[in-house]
Amino acid sequence: MKLEEALKAFIEETLVREGGSAAVALDEPLIDRGVLDSMGMLNLISFLEERTGVRIPDDEVLLENFATINDIVATVDRLQDGGRKAR
Amino acid sequence: MGYLLWHYLADSAQRFPGNIAVSHRGVQMTYAELDAESTRLANLLRRHGIGAGMRVGMYLEKQPKVIVAMQAVLKAGAAYVPVDPGAPPARAAYILGDCQVTAVVTTSRKMAGLLAAGELPSIRLVVLVDELAADQAPGGPTVVDWSALAAEDAANVPTTTAVETDPAYLLYTSGSTGNPKGVILTHRHARTFVDWGVELFEPRPTDRLSNHAPMHFDLSVFDTYVALQAGACLCPVPDEVAPFPVQLGDWIEAQQISIWYSVPSALIRMLLHGRIERLTFPSLRHVLFAGEVFPVKYLRDVQAKMPKAQFWNLYGPTETNVCTYYKVPTIPEDQTAEIPIGHACENTDVFAVTDDDRLAGVGEMGELLVRGPSVMPGYWGLPDRTAKALVRNPLQHAYTEMVYRTGDYVKLREDGEYEFIGRKDNQVKSRGYRIELGEVEQTIYRHPGVREAAVIALPDAEIGARLKVVVVPHEEGAMTRRDVEAFCQAHLPRYMIPEIIEFRTSLPRTSTGKADRVALAAETVAS
Lengths: 87, 527
Description:
The complex is a heterodimer of chains A (87) and B (527). Chain A is mainly α and 87 residues long. Chain A has helices at residues 3-15, 38-52, 63-66, 69-86. In chain B, helix 1 packs across helix 2 and helix 8 (245-254) packs across helix 9 (264-273). Chain A binds chain B through residues 13-15, 17-20, 31, 34, 36-41, 43, 58-59, 61-63, 66, and chain B through 61, 85-90, 109-110, 112-114, 116-117, 239-247, 266, 269, 272-273, 275, 431, 482, 485-486, 489, 494-495.
């Protein structure tokens, strides 16, 4: 499964807590769905680190990097590429 | 002289009508506006028959309308019940049903979740802070949106029969029997606490107070009402700032926060992950923390980064409000001992009794008991739990006097300050939240695939404790981590969900046949 699909499924299944429809669009601001509180962020980061093996440094934990599913995927891609170049 | 909790707002609106009362995401609301808007909503509530002796739920994210709604409910003579906006609808519905709210202030999305979670027959009015959903179910509660306020009277607060001994709000905390329990606090309790804070911290109309804690957490009572009393500005931390340590530090500086109050873990996260060496926090004059132990190694560093601020450690279960405090001196480099929780607040009495009900002497361990006008009258609808928590003062034989048993072991130091030692029971603190391990366990037990479950807390310097659950399924291999996670997500607030989930075929036992949590915790620490 592509990261964006897996991430969407993870957010819909475990982070959206509204009852009813949990569908989250790829470009929908996650803040509006109550997904990004401090505990949700921790869950999200450990999900991403486990799934992709990319470490997300503290100074990348910024709203602009986590605002939407698309933003998160872009952040992980960027960190992955940066890691490859460094090696 | 004011005697109800909303009188702070009314007085400040007279004295400082043009001052900013609430500032959030660039929206500024003056005292005159907050006063008028809350009077409108109070009149709307009264017209729907909501008033003294009733409760109104609040299930929504932090925003200025929450402050309006809290004041409006009080002006209508009723008590408000803030529910964790991150709680799953099933838990929110439990709380709203438990205390039989007659109205709820919420969003259309959350309303849909509540309706899907089950029947709430006590609710006769729903006030939406956003737009009205088109399809209203016939026979259900009346649903209005915020635009309905425009037609209401803004000048005259409705007449009610509310007095200072009536409940002002209910705060639900974790309950060991599997469901949260509602702590009742009256106008007088809250004002005793707020007046103490005003006297000690001397807030000014120019102060800007952060509001970091959620509204269902009692820390927010201080922020809200100390600000309202002083004609100062309340600055709720926006949801898009709080989870990001770098942005939180920037926000504190940019907002010129002068009085900060939070759980230690919020400050520790900012210290460790917020790059705060860039910042100087020139406006901060008081930093208050409560809810959990602030490990001294981190406290010293935070103190050094905020040199203009006086640090204060506040202590008190929701049931008593803050009951002790400690003015934190500059912590020496070589200090390793944790700081004390301090001594009793004004108008409050605290003392420790030994397990055989003697007054504990200096250096002797005892359970902290609290007495005074800030102690709750009881839990909502739980006379048995109330009777266990509020007991006759074991040291007072001449007459009956009730004291609250905190369940916390403390030691009195030579200098008159109390030191916190640990819990008497199965309650732990994580990120300042009280968690009854029994509640988490009972919830997981409800999963049909679970034969047994034991929840343990692993100590953690940054957030206090991390939870681990060991699950014994009915059928080996029939359950996955995700099953347990998803079940917890549907029934527990996020801070109560175990981070570590482990499966076994049996649990270690004590000699009496109980699950041996001590052995489980020891194994985890060793591995």
